[in-house]
Amino acid sequence: MLYFVIDAFTETKFTGNTAGVVIYEELDEEFMQNFATEVRFSETAFVKKLYDQQFEIKYFTPTTQVNLCGHATIASFKALLDSHFIEKNRTYTVHTLAGILSVEVTESFIMMEQAEPKLGKIFDDTNHLAKIFNIDKNLIGDKHFNLVPQAVSTGLWDIMFPLKTKEALYALNPDFKALAEYSKTNNVGGVHAFTLDTNEGIAETRNFCPQYGIDEEAATGTSNGALTYYLFHKGVLNQFNQEYSFQQGTSMGRPSTIITKLVNKEKPRVKVGGNAVIVTKGELY
């Protein structure tokens, strides 16, 4: 079995978000979870070829299996390219717990379809969120748009958490135990904090998911996919088939660039993509 360590949503080693990738034929899920716990990347992906141009991917954090993971999908297809299982300039199908999705492999990057976008609960209790993140509640929102914390999913539920300034974003210092409990109570994976106060891309973001063993993540494809749909719903974004870029990981010293795209104006969906670089590869015994 081939095993890779890959930095996703970047072209530079030791930046972006690291994923483990295992290409296998037969493994049980107990082994997968134990292995993900051993290597302790935010996600480890286990990839199996089903048929021509169709693959199954299972995703594990250090503590649990999750339905979908953007950066681990990008990493998986980088590993499949390197192993000559796939070719550039083709579209493939991936079976996940979030559904059957398409992945486009081009010369420049890997772009994956997200699950059907869904809007969830609006969180009016900004006092509670402000206390968990140790910030003034008046910093929550945006200076120009009517943005409020809301649960959104394009495969995984996260609370979109708008902040008025980049300084407020960088100042977040969450109580991870309280955040894990809050996420569990509200049936979300975690919180995707963001600000439109940036000169680079659409937004700068930070993602917190302590209930799944990930205090903070350097690049989160599904969450930025959900953020794209949230910003579309709020009237911030309105162009289809146009690439939008989001910055994440700067606060962790692992800068990442996530590319998203709105498609299908009649029934909007989101695609998420980026580059990846292989750090190391070997065999899994």
Features:
single chain; 285 residues; alpha+beta; Diaminopimelate Epimerase, Chain A, domain 1; 2 domains; 6 helices; 18 strands; 21% helix
Polypeptide structure, described:
The structure is a single chain. This protein has 285 residues and is of the alpha+beta class. It folds into two domains: 124 residues, Diaminopimelate Epimerase, Chain A, domain 1, CATH 3.10.310.10; 150 residues, Diaminopimelate Epimerase, Chain A, domain 1 (Roll), CATH 3.10.310. 21% of the residues lie in helices and 39% in strands. The chain has an 18-stranded mixed beta sheet that branches. The radius of gyration is 18 Å and the shape is globular.
Provide the CATH top-level class of the largest domain: Alpha Beta
Helical proportion, percent range? 10-25%
Rg: 18 Å
3D shape? globular
Structural class: alpha+beta
Number of strands: 18
Mean pLDDT: 96
Could you give a quick summary of the protein structure above?
With 285 residues, the protein is an alpha+beta fold. The protein folds into 2 domains: 2-115 and 274-283, Diaminopimelate Epimerase, Chain A, domain 1 (Roll); 118-267, Diaminopimelate Epimerase, Chain A, domain 1 (Roll), CATH 3.10.310.10.
